[in-house]
Amino acid sequence: MNGQVRADIRAGLEVDIVLKQDQASGKLTHGTVKDILTNSPRHPHGIKVRLTSGQVGRVKQITS
């Protein structure tokens, strides 16, 4: 799953996100979803989430 559909994402999932400052390099950050921040059902760049660590980024891959 590529993280573009909001219905596929829920709190507690393990995901890889790209942080705003890492968008140019494409570096991924692994973590657990705490909150879903995107309200629309789909987003072409990935659903924006907050991880339990407090980091915010767009989901690129669901790993769990």
Automatic annotation (TrEMBL):
Domain of life, source organism: Bacteria
Pfam families: DUF2196
Protein's organism: Paenibacillus albidus
Entry protein name: YwbE family protein
InterPro entries assigned to the protein according to its UniProt record, in alphabetical order: DUF2196
PANTHER family: YWBE PROTEIN (PTHR40069:SF1)
